[in-house]
Amino acid sequence: MRIEEYVMLNDKVFLKLKGKIVKRWLIAIALFILVLVAGCAGQNHQSTPAESVQPAGKNDGQSQQNSVSPTTPATPSASAATPAQKTGTTPAPKIETASESTPELTADAAIKLMDEARDRNYKLLQKGGPCDEFNYINDEDGGYAFICAELNSKEKIQKYLEEVFTSPIAATIIGQLDLRKKDNKLAFSPLDWGSMYDWSSIKVTKTTKDGNKATFLFKVGLLDASVEPKTIEITFKYIDKSGWRVDTEPQHFL
């Protein structure tokens, strides 16, 4: 074989092999392009529903917000003024003072109340109350008398005294009666009370008020004209729905 024929034969073989290689590369490139195109198509297919869902979500959120907002009360702004602030006539709270709730106790009224308190204390401790009948009975325990029929219970005596005295003072006076039952009647131990003062010469020298209480200083002469007048201090207390009452034990002004 000649050299020229050998070279030509090798060239043909080389070209044939080169053609196969190129063909395979072209096939590989074509397959790669197909895979790439298929992948892009798949991504587009997946992204399309997601994009369609997102607007629907926004619309749902808006529809939910719109459905709630009609029932939500409007919140006034911080700068909104109340009617009172607009008019500038906000009423101030009323503070009740002692002078508004407690009536004044005049000197004449205080003297009159003290006289009535002294009289009731005297009649109860000496006679058993305002009745005219009085019968003292001696017995082993030192003697007794009966309480007036109109005051035939401790509750009635308490009420009788509380018309001029405060409750604590009334209770103190009742404690001095030594109440007990005799022959199914209410009995007590009479006490002998007397006064050294001349109440016709009483004068008010000073008055002090504190809330529902009023304290009076009285200057009172004595039955013995040779003795200097005495100063007596008596406190009165105002009781709601009842009025002024003596709040000093009666032995201080008998």
Characterization of the model:
Helix 5 (154-161) crosses helix 6. The chain has helices at 3-68, 83-87, 98-101, 107-127, 154-161, 167-175, and strands at 145-146, 180-182, 185-188, 197-210, 213-222, 230-239, 243-246. It starts with a helix and ends in an 8-residue tail after the last strand. It has two domains: 1-40; 106-252, Nuclear Transport Factor 2, Chain: A (Roll), CATH 3.10.450.420. It is of the alpha+beta class. Strands 4-5-6-7 form a four-stranded antiparallel beta sheet, with helices on one face. The protein is 44% helix and 19% strand. The radius of gyration is 57 Å and the shape is elongated. The model is unreliable at 2-7 and 45-100 (pLDDT under 50).
Distance between the termini: 174 Å
The residue fraction in helices comes out at: 40-55%
Class by SSE composition: alpha+beta
Q: Helix and strand string, N-terminal first?
A: HHHHEHHEEEEEE
Sheet of most strands:
4 strands, antiparallel
Rg over CA atoms: 57 Å
Mean pLDDT: 75
Instruction: Look up the CATH topology of the largest domain.
Output: Nuclear Transport Factor 2, Chain: A
Task: Write out key terms for the chains shown.
alpha+beta, four-stranded antiparallel beta sheet, Nuclear Transport Factor 2, Chain: A, 2 domains, 44% helix, disordered N terminus, Endopep_inhib, three-stranded antiparallel beta sheet, 254 residues
Short characterization:
The protein is of the alpha+beta class and 254 residues long.
Layout of helices and strands, plus pairs?
Layout lengths: L2 H66 L14 H5 L10 H4 L5 H21 L17 E2 L7 H8 L5 H9 L4 E3 L2 E4 L8 E14 L2 E10 L7 E10 L3 E4 L8
Antiparallel strand pairs: 1-3, 2-3, 4-5, 5-6, 6-7
Helix pairs in contact: 5-6
